[in-house]
Design goal:
The complex is a heterodimer of chains A (264) and B (324). Chain A is built from 7 helices and 15 strands. With 264 residues, chain A is of the alpha/beta class. Chain A has a single domain, classed as Rossmann fold. In chain A, strands 11-10-9-12-8-1-6-7-13 form a 9-stranded mixed β-sheet, sandwiched between helices. A two-stranded antiparallel sheet of chain A has the order 2-5. Chain A has a two-stranded antiparallel sheet with strand order 3-4. In chain A, helix 3 packs across helix 4. With 324 residues, chain B is α/β, with parallel strands linked by helices. Chain B folds into 2 domains: 180 residues, HUPs (Rossmann fold, 3-Layer(aba) Sandwich), CATH 3.40.50.620; 119 residues, TPP-binding domain (Rossmann fold, 3-Layer(aba) Sandwich). In chain B, 28% of the residues lie in helices and 28% in strands. Chain B contains 8 helices and 18 strands. In chain B, strand 4, helix 2 and strand 5 form a beta-alpha-beta unit. Chain B is elongated. Chain B starts with a strand and ends with a helix.
Chain lengths: 264, 324
């Protein structure tokens, strides 16, 4: 079977994220990396391949993003993907969740995968929803936040936590599955894999190449616009103690608890 | 017509509290838009007409009951898309939670509509609903305005207050032709409880442990501290999924929401999914070795240090104090 993994390049976790006041979008300049949640999806694909029960012919990493997003694809390939696709087009800039999901679905249509995997959320926009959008366009069943997945006879038996406890759901392939970070411990790429990543095929595609309707994407094609940014109601910031002398720290905690009558 | 359609989540014939909040909020918004708030449920025979009519007490005008599989998103997307196409609602509203996210996003794809998640407030401006959403670890609030005929709003968990207004809703059975792909995911078991039963909702003091405890055995330090503080022990999703702590003690988006007098967070980074389950606590103390952990942004007292060193000494000091 063929597995497509959706990945995203996000600002490095160590970088302070900010909204560009001019565009109302996340400022993506500066250090960028593969969304850490996506590494779990790549690892899940690798474990299916290495598990030997279901033969995997190909693992393809797919991203949509501005020029420079190759960095995330190289990382994805170093972690195990065989090749990658970069959907890049100025017309796509400023797409909302629904438009982004539509665009990715168009790329996936041309790939015809048996399984689409993605991470539970992106580190920047905190959307947990792109999988559900993609699945509806592809007319495939879908499940998010999956923490255990067993594949047999074209059915993925998935476990996840939902509102009332753990759900076990049998999902017929082809399907779109977003995995939670508890599903596995992603491997570190070997030095050889990192060095070899740039030699693996990377296709750059424009919106028209995959049949994206330009009227449905970008700022103008998006049905929701974000703006009017403001600070949340401020909460008085708490006191921070750096623990240097633990006895002193403990005495301060005890005093703090006593002051608030929290000691039973 | 500017009316609001709310999806109500349910299990064992009981409607979820977050969905009741969404019905109350949907009723308020619909009132300002000059329409009504209707509700849709998809499920089996355990949902009685009596239970559904009682949703009128939260403001619902009409409840559409659809026979179908429970706890899965795609059949609900089919039902809501059909209702929105026939009745022309201006907004679809969800009380949050995993299923709400999935349904709302899938519905946005189906209807080519805009969707906003993690919404904490809804306003009506120029005859249309706009949604406020905290972003970037709650450091800013962004306002979503919708372009098309339908705006989809997925609330943050516990964002909407449940308000009882009195009244009875009309209940109508609605036949829906499910899409073939909507029936390709099948629930095997739903809402399974794993691990021992622990009661965290009634505790006035909670000591909660996260990944920073390092291993399952780290919870011993939380147990000891909770005992001397007269409280109970709770956990984050990460450590429950890792099997370190029973599910019943999980705080957050998919676990329980708590508001004790004292919340002691040990080795918890403070992701939004955790925060929504405990931010109502009166006093919050956090210990974490990472000074950049988001939890310090909403703690009353933050300790940057090694919990393996601090917790045992703190327990000892509190025990000594008690002994007099």
């Amino acid at each position: 079977m063929k597995i497509c993994v959706l990945v995203k390049q996000v600002p490095d976790a160590a970088v302070d994220k900010r909204i560009d006041p001019a565009t109302g979008r996340l400022d993506r300049s500066g250090e960028a990396n593969l969304n850490p949640y996506d590494t779990h999806a790549i690892e899940a694909a690798m474990q299916i391949r290495e598990g030997g029960v279901t033969p995997v012919e190909e693992i393809v990493a797919v991203t949509m993003g501005p020029a420079g997003s190759e960095r995330a694809l190289h990382k994805a390939v170093s972690l195990g993907a065989d090749r990658s696709i970069h959907l890049s087009d100025d017309a796509l800039a400023g797409s909302d969740v629904a438009a982004t999901g539509y665009s990715l679905a168009k790329v996936l249509e041309s790939e015809n995968p048996d399984l689409v995997l993605l991470g539970q959320q992106s580190d920047d926009g905190e959307c947990y929803t792109i999988g559900a959008v993609v699945a509806d366009h592809l007319q495939m069943p879908s499940l998010t936040q999956v923490v255990k997945m067993d594949l047999a006879d074209k059915v993925a038996t998935c476990e996840r936590q939902a509102e009332y406890g753990y759900d076990t759901v049998a999902v017929e392939l082809p399907a779109v599955i977003s995995v939670g970070d508890a599903i596995n411990e992603p491997r570190y790429p070997s030095l050889k894999a990192i060095m070899g990543a740039k030699k693996k095929p990377l296709d750059v595609k424009a919106a028209a190449d995959v049949g994206i309707d330009a009227g449905k994407v970008g700022v103008d094609g998006s049905q929701v616009s974000c703006g009017d940014f403001k600070a949340p109601p401020s909460k008085e910031s708490g006191r921070i103690i750096e623990d240097e002398d633990t006895n002193e720290t403990v005495a301060e905690i005890v005093a703090w608890l006593e002051e608030r009558k929290l000691i039973a | 017509m500017s009316s609001v359609l709310v999806y109500a989540l349910h299990k064992d014939g009981v409607i979820n509290k977050n969905s009741l909040g969404a019905i109350s909020e949907g009723t308020r918004v619909a009132g300002e838009l000059g329409g009504q708030c209707d509700v849709v449920v998809v499920g089996g025979a355990d949902l009685t007409d009596e239970t559904l009519a009682a949703l009128g007490n939260y403001g619902a005008s009409k409840v559409y009951k659809v026979d179908g599989p429970e706890g899965l998103s795609q059949p609900v997307i089919d039902a809501m898309a059909q209702l929105i196409k026939t009745n022309g609602y201006s907004n679809a509203l969800f009380g949050g939670g995993l299923l709400g996210f999935e349904i709302g996003a899938g519905l946005a794809a189906r209807l080519e509509a805009g969707v906003t998640m993690e919404v904490t407030a809804i306003r009506v401006e120029n005859g249309k609903a706009v949604a406020e959403r905290p972003i970037l670890q709650d450091s800013q609030i962004s306002t979503s305005t919708y372009r098309g005929d339908v705006g989809i709003i997925i609330g943050r968990i516990n964002a909407f207050e449940v308000k009882e207004t009195g009244g009875t809703a009309a209940v109508e059975q609605l036949p829906v032709d499910f899409s073939p792909f909507s029936l390709k995911a099948k629930m095997v078991t739903r809402g399974e409880q794993r691990g021992a039963d622990v009661n965290i909702e009634d505790a006035s003091v909670l000591v909660a442990g996260g990944r920073g405890l390092g291993e399952a055995e780290g919870f011993k330090m939380c147990d000891d501290l909770a005992e001397v503080l007269g409280g109970a022990v709770a956990a984050t999703r990460a450590v429950v999924d890792a099997g370190w702590f029973p599910y019943a003690g999980q705080i957050g988006q998919t676990g329980r929401a708590v508001a004790p007098k004292l919340y002691f967070a040990a080795g918890i980074s403070g992701a939004i999914q955790h925060k929504v389950g405990m931010q109502g606590s009166e006093n919050i103390i956090a210990i974490n070795k990472d000074s950049n952990a988001p939890i310090f942004e909403f703690s009353d007292l933050g300790i940057v240090g090694d919990l393996n060193k601090i917790l045992p000494k703190l327990t000892e000091a509190l025990a000594a104090k008690k002994a007099g």
